[in-house]
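Anyone up for a design puzzle?
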């Protein structure tokens, strides 16, 4: 039961959001004084200056969304420990990201002076078509994810605080749009690190409240064993078949290293030591965080023992109700910061990446091509180095960031249902589109633009079609078909287009 408009719940949230805005403003002002490489490099990649801790925490905060705090634990409340065992695969996410993409993306992006993932893709495949398709896919799927984050955060706010959905949406929606627009990549990274810390605090506070309310860990397990013993089994009494394990491990674990919002972080760290530190810290922190937050859903069964119909008919309601029921108002206000931080950190990262796809990868690229000047002048302008262009590019980038944020904000006013499903749908689409284009582009010399376009378009169209029709071949999630077809199309397209042609590896990618 929500606490009707209780200011004790609201105050911690407002203080956190105000501090986040202030932090982004301070970071931006300092960045202006020390930025190297012009506005574009600073705004979209933070002048490649992230240390290990900030790199780890911003990547964790980008990966951990509101569905990690609401939808995932809600499913665990319904299914049991099987969902926790499935979630454990997320411990591999940052290890694979930094281990596979980290060093190669950093080296290549520095050689190219690239500041976006699409910069790297365009240079590798030497194709505007591949870059334009990439930009379109990023903006569309990122928009869906941002709407899901806004809606999830606002619904959680409404359920716990007693204030309306619109108040919650306006409060942190406006805050995150403002600090992303002003702060750029560096501001987002620093505030993401703060959000990551608050996510951990929120988990600990809620865990303490549930354990206290439920009489301790052993008592909760005894209650679950008596009421629904299948929740203690790995297969959940048939609710967690092996096929579901396999496909979910792919979707939320193994393939997440190819998500562009995460890959771009591999282009922003300071040095190799920072990368190694981020790999170790990030792997440990993310693994512990995701396992614990999902397990909270199982423990919540000890304090919310009824059926789903008793709690509004949606698993998304379980954690908000648990927060309201198990914690006093002031602690509920602290606990809610965790999922709200997850929401706004994901939105800020997606927003800055979407803005870069439009401004840097489309507008500035075609503007540079239209100039009647030599290559050096074009490169100078496209990277924001020309002093006469810097203010115009600065204004344009911030306007696009603000406009995108406001569009998503408006779309979230009328909330869709099943937030976690929207998030997982977008995950699958982005993985299908970018996994093989990035992996083959970085590590296979014969990959070419024909294979890349076929892989992205064919894989995403089939994936989305199967999702829309609800078709699951052999009972497996649609990501299995999408990612498999994407690989086949990459190989076949590259082979046909490259047949009979000698391959001259690009020395930037294959020195």
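Challenge accepted. My sequence:
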């Amino acid at each position: 039961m929500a606490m009707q408009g209780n200011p004790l719940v609201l105050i911690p949230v407002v203080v956190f959001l105000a501090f986040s805005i202030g932090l982004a403003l301070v970071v931006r002002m300092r960045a202006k004084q020390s930025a190297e490489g012009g506005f574009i490099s600073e705004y979209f990649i933070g002048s490649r200056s992230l240390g290990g801790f900030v790199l780890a925490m911003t990547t964790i905060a980008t990966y951990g969304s509101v569905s990690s705090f609401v939808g995932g634990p809600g499913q665990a409340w319904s299914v049991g420990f099987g969902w926790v065992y499935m979630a454990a695969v997320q411990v591999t996410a940052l290890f694979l990201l930094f281990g596979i993409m980290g060093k190669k993306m950093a080296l290549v992006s520095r050689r190219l002076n690239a500041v976006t993932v699409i910069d790297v893709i365009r240079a590798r495949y030497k194709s505007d078509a591949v870059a334009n398709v990439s930009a379109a896919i990023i903006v569309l799927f990122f928009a869906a994810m941002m709407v899901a984050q806004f809606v999830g955060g606002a619904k959680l706010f409404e359920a716990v605080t007693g204030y309306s959905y619109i108040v919650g949406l306006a409060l942190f929606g406006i805050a995150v749009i403002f600090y992303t627009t002003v702060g750029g990549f560096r501001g987002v990274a620093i505030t993401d690190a703060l959000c990551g810390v608050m996510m951990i605090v929120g988990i600990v506070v809620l865990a303490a409240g549930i354990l206290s309310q439920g009489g301790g860990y052993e008592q909760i397990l005894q209650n679950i064993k008596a009421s629904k013993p299948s929740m203690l089994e790995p297969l959940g009494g048939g609710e967690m078949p092996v096929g579901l394990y396999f496909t979910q491990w792919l979707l939320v674990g193994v393939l997440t290293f190819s998500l562009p919002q995460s890959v771009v972080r591999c282009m922003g760290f300071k040095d190799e030591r920072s990368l190694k530190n981020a790999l170790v810290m990030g792997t440990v922190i993310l693994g512990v965080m995701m396992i614990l937050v999902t397990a909270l859903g199982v423990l919540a069964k000890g304090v919310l023992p009824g059926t789903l119909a008793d709690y509004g008919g949606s698993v998304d309601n379980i954690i908000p109700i648990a927060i309201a029921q198990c914690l006093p108002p002031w602690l509920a206000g602290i606990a809610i910061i965790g999922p709200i931080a997850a929401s706004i950190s994901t939105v800020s990262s997606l927003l800055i990446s979407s803005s870069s796809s439009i401004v840097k990868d489309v507008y500035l690229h075609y503007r540079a091509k239209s100039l009647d000047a030599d290559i050096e002048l074009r490169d100078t302008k496209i990277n924001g180095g020309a002093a006469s262009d810097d203010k115009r590019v600065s204004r344009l980038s911030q306007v696009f960031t603000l406009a995108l944020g406001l569009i998503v904000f408006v779309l979230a006013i009328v909330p869709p249902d099943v937030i976690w499903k929207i998030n997982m749908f977008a995950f699958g689409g982005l993985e299908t589109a970018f996994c093989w284009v990035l992996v083959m582009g970085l590590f296979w010399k014969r990959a070419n633009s024909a294979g890349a376009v076929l892989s992205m378009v064919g894989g995403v169209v089939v994936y989305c079609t199967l999702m829309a029709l609800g078709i699951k071949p052999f009972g497996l999630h649609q990501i299995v078909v999408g990612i498999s077809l994407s690989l086949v199309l990459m190989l076949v397209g590259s082979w046909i287009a490259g047949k009979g042609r000698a391959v001259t590896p690009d020395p930037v990618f294959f020195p």
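A detail worth pointing out: Confidence is low (pLDDT under 50) at residues 372-388.
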